Amino acid sequence: RAPMVLQVKRISVFSYLQDLKKRKPRGNSGTTVIVVEWHPAYITGQMQFGQDQRACKFDVLVGGYFGHDELVDLCVDATVGDRGKLGASMLVHHVRHALCQPSFVMAATRLLKWWAHRVVRPSEPFLKPRSFLLELLVLHAAESSARAAAKPYGPYELFLDALREITQWRSLCALWHWEVITTCNVAPPVLLDPMNPTNNVARTLCTAHWQRFGSLATLTLAMLGDEGGS
What number of other Cβ atoms are within 10 A of residue 34's Cβ? Predict the structure, then answer.
């Protein structure tokens, strides 16, 4: 791939699209037709340009100010294709949820991300677990591990438990509090988004990648000796 340098400046999406709509066509050969639909959480549109009226569709996720319960209802009622468009609106709730976690959970998450970067990535360049997946694995380990009540229990111990969660991916089924509106009727691994019951974050890795992910976690625990044992 050739290197490419881009100059990026911050612009208002609303102003930019309004400006596009105001532009006058420059003759028939350069006519551009822009259709924009404004929704509470996103903007969708289509541009047709050139003599052959080639079309380019676009979505801009601008986000909306929704209460969490209202946003969950929107996600549940939306079609599969439209749920992704609510991601920007869900982001603020994800951030709030992350900031409410205890310091040892955040520290363990940093350890797991470091492991993914320094161990997983060099071993499997095409295996790239998302940060959100790693965060939820740590959170699930913190909530489900019986060792959480034992002392001492800190970031390192939680990191080890998160690795164990990865090794047991075939039986992973984390519903959080969503069991009241959903059932674990999907084959594991299931790792629901704590803020969105329609989002199974475990699906961000395919089965083959989960297998390799689990193998690397098993190998890491073995290298750590008795401390990494179950």
Answer: 16
Over 102-155, what HEC string results?
A: CHHHHHHHHHHHHHHHHHHHHHCCCCCCCHHHHHHHHHHHHHHCHHHHCCCCCH
Q: What is the pTM of this model?
A: 0.71
Domains and CATH numbers, the chain: 31-100 (no CATH), 102-228 (1.10.1410.20)
Residue-level pLDDT, tens digit, the chain, 230 residues: 344 444 444 556 556 666 655 555 544 555 566 777 767 677 777 777 666 667 777 777 666 677 777 778 877 787 777 777 777 778 878 888 888 899 999 999 999 999 999 999 999 999 999 999 999 999 999 988 755 566 667 899 999 999 999 999 999 999 888 765 555 567 789 999 888 888 899 999 999 999 999 999 999 999 998 554 44
